[in-house]
Amino acid sequence: MNGPLNVIGADAPRSDAHDKTTGRARYTVDFEAPGMLHAMVLRSARSHARLVGVDVREALKLSGVHTVLTGADMADEKMPFYGYFIKDQPILATDRVRYIGDQIAAVAAECQETAAEALRLIRVEYEDLGEAADIETARSDDAPELFPEAPFGIVPQYGKGASAVLRPRRNVCYEFRYTTGSETVFDECAHIFEDEFRFSRMHHLHLEPFVSLCHWHENDEIEIVSSCQNPFPLRKEISRIFAIPENRISVKVPYVGGGFGSKNNCKTEPLALVLSRATGRPVRLCLTAEEGFLTNTQHAAILRLKTGVDADGRIRARRSRIDLDAGAYSDASPLVAEKAGYRITGPYALDHIDTVCACVMTNTAPAGPFRGFGGTQASWAAESQTDMIARRLDMDPYEFRMRNLLDLGQPFVPGESGVDSDLRLGLDVVADAIGYHAPRAPGRGIGLAVGFKDGGGVNKPAQARVKVSTSGDVHLQCGTVELGQGSRTALARIVAEILGCPESRVEFLPIDTRYTPFDQGTNASSGISVMGQAVARAAESVRDQVLEFAERALGAPAETMTLDDWTILKGNESHPLAPMVMLEYGGTGFEFSGDGFHKATNDHDAPLETKCVFWEIGWAGAEVSVDVETGLVRVHKLVVSGDAGRAIHKMVCRGQDEGAALMGLGQALFERMVYDGANLINGNTLSYRVPLAEDLPEVFEAITQEQGHGPGPFGAKGMGEGAMLPVAPAIANAIEDAAGIRLTELPFTPERVLNALSNQQK
Amino acid sequence: MKPISKKARIAVNCSVNGADCSHEVSTSRVLADFLRDDLGLKGTKVSCGRSVCGACTVLIDGAPRAACSAFVFEADGCEIETVEGLEGKQGVPNPLQQAFIRRSAFQCGFCTSGMLMLLWGLLRDNPNPDRAEILRWMSSNTCRCTGYSLIVEAVEEAVREMNRSREAAQ
User: Fold this and answer.
1) Partner of A168 at 20 to 30 A CA spacing, among A267, A445, A501, A749?
2) Which of these, A13, A12, A9, lies nearest to A645 by C-alpha position?
3) How confident is the model at residue A1 (pLDDT cuts 50, 70, 90)?
4) Chain-chain contact of A21 with B112 (C-beta, under 8 angstroms)
């Protein structure tokens, strides 16, 4: 891979540009099937109750209704529960409901209107069990227990220093722990700081709703079209739930209209499938935006940090206790706990770490994967405390970070891979762009933060296939889902660069688990760093096969020839491949096909069993002012930066960071799910405030660094989550710089700002 | 006055992307469903269904409107334009679409049809909007992916391109 690059980094449009700007792009929501029925779900009106009775008789009588199912209809299923490590979420509630929005019954009808009418005819009788609506209530000794009996669950194998337990105490479904070094390091610290931080909870608000079109065929073949991020894990889960072999299940994923983590694992699919099996018809289950709020959310959190700093201003030790609000079902919470716990130190090398992160079950909507995956919570607390410590020690927060940041190549804990970005260089990029070192304008404050997460997933394999037909048309097959992040473009560019052909020659084939090579899912910013390596290997395999074929056909050593737009260049001769292939294989021709595979090596010395594939870093600088009369925080300037290693498409990299940064800005200033007890009071798009164009800071800049140290093809690495991590702490740090108040709870509402200002005056 | 049953049917005559269209629809038929399911124009997307996010924005007599929250009968006698109509007969993307393509002013694409229609409506209303006006108009639609900046740049670029073509034509 030497020499100048032709396709990587080029300014040409994304491959999906035409589809998406002309209305031609097809999403799951656009799919129909002959005889298709429409499904709707009856949801619990109570936060925690025993189901005394569900009467569907009137609903069944309604003309146009094909079936109405309840938990009682799931009695014959072997395993009608799903989840990641813990299988606790029922397809339909059986004995009890655990949150307002829990699924009680489902209707399949000729049209949506009939289904809606049928729902109104279902009668539910509840017997309340008392609610545990938040972390603190749920952890108390007298809280009602959401799961009196243990659901099936596992703890994966962990490496050095990491461990986890299921159900360590009431309403905690999983607790992750990581320790390294001796507790006595605290004794060597001149300063010890203890602080508590609170993290509010957002909904992904992906614009394409949760939707699938599912068909359980008479011969027990299952066909699913779904707006999902992980077709293969979904296939495995469906196979397990219904005891149908994986080779009889087809999961197809077209363009997905946004995920941000929410579209991992089962959402609408198991329910649509049981409705299809009951009716013999394809069933479309498309949730409303309001139901989306009740289906998957981010984790609210309480984070307590005790940090030791020595006399030289070096961060040496951290003890952290983190509680995540997992909601009513475990979903991906154990995995998020793993990451929030692991990432709590931030990008610094500590001699002692003791971190415990618990998933607390509450009677609220299930929390799951969300852009940042525990890293946002960890960075919020860690990078806020970094500034607080610097100020308490009378040090400049920039200098304090510079002193403590990891060196390029240095592992943050024993057994890990070295950090693959120059963190100080990156901090200077944002510090300079925001004008950190210049005198402050009156009333203005500037804050910095460095977000940090391990990227590429844990122990994650990816496979890919590249095929080139006689005429040189390139087929790329892999399971990375195009969610908007530009994966089809980026992966096609890797193939085009290696095969020496224009990007337009490469077609990304539709994903169908029956034909697409295996992949673990589109998450953890793994598209380039993991799948990219598999794709590159597949393309290299094809290129080598073609050159070996040319060696046989042209009688020259393969290494003396090059492949250039389906032509072999041999010295000053050029030999088009199509006629050569037909001469050898006959007129119909041949297809060169290469497979690629990548997975990080298993390593028990690494805390999470494999060394991290790459490090995703987000640097941010924010300039704010605080209106002391109204409590309004205004972000005048926001500069974020990520390190793409090598930018495969510059505009896409910029867009990823800008999108992530604005999500972080919303989280910092106003966006959150508001619960009154267990009742979500803003679970609809009208009252749930998301960032709009008018919320853009006056100066908003995303700087893509290309430091070149990534493990992916051409030095690339993943991005898209990193720029979200540092935004909220950078703004909190800027607020202290501007107004001398420290906010430790998100979001920074005017009310909280005014309270902090009035406490300051006392 | 006797209330009209929601099952009652009503004749609607309108034009959709320049083609005349006569349909009998129920009085409760929603415009977005009519466009997507009756006419097969799937480019118009429905997300929130509450006329908040703007993913379903179409132009009715040149003005942006949330198709998820409009009845078909309201469009009787009107000109409806959807994303499918932006390209023109030769299949050439219009200047705004071209700017979106060049600036990568989309990611997942689910808001894009609505965003294009909204901003095409803006350029009809004012061919030379300043940045503040662009931001004001754009704030009636939600994009969850891009952080909006590249969309703003695309509109500004389209304005420059369209002015250049107008000057060249004079």
Assistant:
1) A267
2) A9
3) very low
4) yes
What CA dihedral angle connects A419, A422, A423 and A429, to 10 degrees? -150
Which of A17, A693, A700 is closest, CB to CB, to B101? A17
Structure tokens at B37: 């399911």
A104-126 pLDDT per residue, tens: 999 999 999 999 999 999 999 99
Out of B83, B144, B151, the one facing A207 most closely (by C-beta) is B144
pLDDT in tens, B87-111: 987 889 999 999 999 999 999 999 9
CB spacing of A17 vs B100 below 8 angstroms: yes
CA distances from A285 to A125, A212, A244, A268 (A): 25, 6, 21, 6
Asked whether A300 and A200 are in contact (CB, 8 A), the reply is: yes
Q: Shortest CB distance from B53 goes to which of A659, A662, A685?
A: A685
What one-letter code names the amino acid at A188?
E
Task: Confirm or reject contact between A240 and chain B (CB < 8 A).
Answer: no
Asked if pLDDT for residue B3 goes beyond 90, the answer is: no
Does the global pTM surpass 0.95? yes
Contact B144 A205 (CB under 8 A): yes
- What does DSSP assign to residue A30? G
A475, A469 Cβ separation under 8 angstroms: yes
For residue A439, give every residue at least 6 positions away whose Cβ sits within 8 Å of its Cβ, in sequence order, or none. Answer: none
CA distance A29 to A461: 29
Instruction: Give B134 to chain A, closest Cα distance, Å.
Output: 9
Q: Strands, DSSP E only, in A362-485?
A: 444-455, 462-469, 474-478
Tokens of A478: 């892999």
Phi, psi of A279 (to 5 degrees): -110, -15
Q: Do B109 and A257 lie within an 8 Å CB cutoff? A: yes
User: How much is the mean pLDDT over chain A?
Assistant: 97
pLDDT tens readout for residues A679-730: 999 999 999 999 999 999 999 999 999 999 999 999 999 999 999 999 999 9
Q: Tell me: the pLDDT tens digits for A501-543? A: 999 999 999 999 999 999 999 999 999 999 999 999 999 999 9
- B34 contacts in A (CB within 8 Å)? none
**C-alpha to C-alpha distance for A336 and A154, rounded to whole angstroms:** 15
